[in-house]
Amino acid sequence: MLPKQYRLKKKSAFTATYKVKNSTRKGGVTLFVGIKKKTDTPTKAGFVVSKKTHKRAVKRNRLKRLMRESYRLLLKENDLGNSQKFMSLIFVGSEQALDKDFKTIYNIIKSLLKGIKC
Predict the structure, then answer these.
(1) Could you give the CA distance from residue 109 to residue 48 in angstroms, rounded to a whole number?
(2) Structural domains of the chain, count
(3) How confident is the prediction along the chain (118 residues), in pLDDT tens digits per residue?
(4) ∠ CA 29-81-15 to the nearest 5 degrees?
(5) Which of 1, 20, 84, 100 has the fewest Cβ atoms within 10 angstroms?
(6) Is this prediction's pTM over 0.85?
């Protein structure tokens, strides 16, 4: 599980990140990047899969778990690239990513994080 200090929880934080309109997409996962940070606080990550993506909560939660675990492993390996220069990250899963396995999701998350431009 992702440690509490790295979780994006507040609705205001989600809306502030969405307002920046800095996003990239790959393989059914969209990454929204927040504003650059000025302090030494850790970068927080949020994971979203809409009900429009799939009506079954089991499918949506599975995709969120896969994305969360991929991010946690990359955080553990310190392989997050330029993403640590931002306040918040939001990973949004779409219908294309529902049937993918862990290794594929891991590679997608890794490439999205490597592709962030400062």
Answers:
(1) 14
(2) 1
(3) 888 999 999 999 999 999 998 999 999 999 999 988 888 889 999 999 999 999 999 999 999 999 999 999 999 998 888 888 889 999 999 999 999 999 999 999 999 999 887 6
(4) 50
(5) 1
(6) yes
